[in-house]
Amino acid sequence: MRADTPVQYLKGVGPKTAEKFARLGVATVEDLLGLYPRRYVDYSNPAPVAAAPFDTDTVVKAAVYSKRGAVRLPGGRTMVQVLAGDDSAGLSLTWFNTHFAADSLQVGEEYFFEGRVRGTLTRREMTNPTVRTPAQVEKTPLAPVYPQTEGLGSGQIARCVARALEEAEPLEEILPPEFLTRFKLPGRWQALQDIHRPASMAAAAAARRRLVFDELFTLQLGLGLLRSRGAAKASAVMEPADLGPFWSSLPFSPTGAQRRAAGEICGDMTKTAPMNRLLQGDVGSGKTLVAAAAVYTAYKNGWQSALMAPTEILAAQHAETLHKLLGSFGVRVALLTGGMKAAARRTALAAIAAGEADLVVGTHAVIGEGVQFKALGLAVVDEQHRFGVRQRGLLAGKAAQPHVLVMSATPIPRTLALLVYGDLDISVLDELPPGRKAIKTYAVGGEKRKAMYGFLEKQIAAGRQVYIVCPLVEESEGQNTEELAAVTTYYTEVAKALLPGRRVGLMHGRLKAKEKAAVMEDFKAGRLDALVSTTVIEVGVDVPGATVMVIENAERYGLSALHQLRGRVGRGAAESFCILVSDHPGEGVRDRLRFLCSTQDGFAIAKYDLEHRGPGDFFGDRQHGLPTLQLASLTTDTRTLAAAHASAAELLEADPALTAPEHRALAGQVQRLFGRTTFN
Ligand code: ADP
Ligand code: MG
């Protein structure tokens, strides 16, 4: 069986399971083999029953003494009980609602049981343990545990992967052979075998090292290819512009950090090489103003600017803000979004092509086909983490040589950013505008919802506005009808019901652009007291009259995302609040939410997310616009990252476009990692 065979052709994988895999992005056998275990359960060293620690996952080996048939409990649950034990103690095993494991047990035989031991010192028990036979343990002493998701259990994934390993032809080696010796790495096929079914922890570790190298190496190759495309081009030629008139036109004074960042950016724009700079600043640090200063400089030099924002709401808001900031200097702002009427779009496109728009603000539409700039000199990408490298590249590609400024609220340590973004320079806004008050943050359970709505009612009565966020659908992604139904139901049955007589609005990604704009306009103008919304409002929205942010199912978000959402309030003079609602029982979840309640420091929050949830969430696709890494951690695998960085540079030196026949398989992996990014 070839590696590119769809998973449903594997024995034991039906269309239903294949569909679940598809939701995880697993289409082929090769994809499936790239679904790595999170950890292993070591069956090779079982604890004596009497010595098994309480309440931690443990493996014990015990003989079965007796079995009882399934009994039906009041309430419809079934229960099966088995008595077992070893020389040290007896063990009572109970399964609820499943009898398959118990059915397979033979009285008098020994088995391995994995689970939590509870009970007393003399009477030990386990509930719903996983059972493995000595033969199974002999074959795979370290059982892989996969992240269970999309309705796929770890055991089910393990079975499918094992099948794939047996039936698939060995995958082609992608690394140059001398890399294997230089970095002491196992071959690719061996590594895949060992990551899924290691004979020892050492084998698993070696396999991981190899696969981490692969990921980081292909990542660096892809970034290298993207970069070399831009390097050859010269920049739009600009003279320094005096920012004095711009600063003094503002109703407030810029912070020192804003002045410094604007200075660095405008300095770059007057160099011969194109600017390639990242502006990093916590939520509310005033990045828009810095972007405006850059646009001002480009305008004074006779160049057009483009600003790309991730949502239509944000694009509309930016267009308005930038018009206010720059209109008096003669800057003509055009808005370009996907949802525009054909006629309006034609007018905008004509103005852009004729150079009658000095600044074009929009969503992806800005990089769409048919958008022709007369003289694009500056491209700004807001909330950079929401865009992929691909979009960034496309925007830069709209002109031969624009300066590029990307802005992000996600703090990434500097050394890491250099490796990840390559030759991107970095400016940091490490100072908030004066007068910001801390946002009081609380985590509550769903049983407090009624009381919470009482509080919302009081805030509204005092003339304030509130946001209520329900998890869901993103504007640009595949939209899930079930979730849409959930937010609509919440809107009518919870929010409207608990705020009788108040004006409650509903915002979600399915609304037409015009409807979204109307809802947002109503909220901004104070014609709505509360706005029930999906995360389409996550980034950048600025409504100073809003003082409360409620986030339902808060456990579903990473802390950085919650912090972004929280940043929507606390923008005016009044005291602001953020209420995180979650019924999730997990201790980890509680701890995370409590942590968020204790701090407003975006950097500390990102760090906590990194340490506690792992890189998958923090450095997930959405966060930095890079491809998702399965295994590698950009924070702990830094040595491998450095090695991969150097090796990629070396390889590209010899084969700049990665077209040599011996690099074909490697080029294929780079394409796979970057999805449909085009490199030329
Ligand atoms: P972010 O960095 O999150 O994009 P914004 O650019 O949206 O932040 O700015 C947040 C708010 O702070 C806006 O209402 C903006 O007008 C205001 N603001 C920005 N700079 C200053 C400043 N120097 N003094 C006072 N308010 C400022
Ligand atoms: Mg912003």
Protein model, in words:
The chain is of the alpha/beta class and 680 residues long. Helices cover 40% and strands 17% of the residues. The strands form four sheets. The chain has a seven-stranded parallel sheet with strand order 12-13-11-14-15-10-16, with helices on both faces. A six-stranded parallel sheet has the order 17-22-21-18-20-19, sandwiched between helices. The longest helix has 31 residues, at 201-231. The protein starts with 14 loop residues before the first helix and ends in a 7-residue tail after the last helix. Mean pLDDT is 85; it is low at 473-479, 614-625 and 676-680. The site of adenosine-5'-diphosphate (ADP) has 17 residues, from helix 11.
The helix content, as a percent range, equals 25-40%
Instruction: Average the pLDDT over all residues and give the rounded result.
Output: 85
Structural class: alpha/beta
How would you characterize the largest beta sheet? 7 strands, parallel
List all distinct small molecules, including ions and cofactors, that are bound in this structure: adenosine-5'-diphosphate, magnesium ion
Number of helices: 25
Work out the radius of gyration. 28 Å
Stretches where pLDDT is under 50 for at least 5 consecutive residues are 473-479, 614-625, 676-680
* General form: globular
What is the first-to-last residue Cα distance? 33 Å
**Total strand segments:** 22
* Share of β-strand residues: 15-25%
**Order of neighbouring strands in the sheet with most strands:** 12-13-11-14-15-10-16
Protein name: ATP-dependent DNA helicase RecG
Family: Belongs to the helicase family. RecG subfamily.
Organism: Candidatus Allofournierella merdipullorum
EC number: 5.6.2.4
